[in-house]
Amino acid sequence: MVSNVTEQNMNEPIIRSKMVTAENSASQMTVADCGEYGTLVFDEPIQHGGTGKGPSPLQGILSALCACESVTFNRTASEMNFKYDSLSFSAEYKIDIRGRLGMRGVTQHFKNVRVEIQVKTSESKQRLEEVVTETELRCPVYNLIQNAGVNLTCQWIRISE
User: CA 33, 140, 129: angle at the middle one, nearest 5?
Assistant: First the structure.
């Protein structure tokens, strides 16, 4: 049997790098290539000049928020020995499109983001609150949106089994 013991100095940054490439053919649609993980198509609805072949980039960010919260919750729940069966997300945003239309002084990104997350679990409300607190401290996309000054509200709802 071979044993391997290593150490990680947590006082030093642990840098991970990922890369995507993207192509746009002078239209509203962009295809992002995520390498071994496939491609993502972002577009605008037909009524906004796109072809409607994919979600808008802002819907993509909301999707990434839900996915990142989900991954982070799963890791945190595992570390905290919190058992759950599922997470269900509903997310919406509000934006003042005048910023995207070129009006100076109007924020181009989300003004408000509201997310509702239903957690199916037999664990107590207090235990859920502990996992949620740690999840939101760790979630990169949650913190990216929050640090941008967006009014971000996440409502976590315990659904008992």
Answer: 135
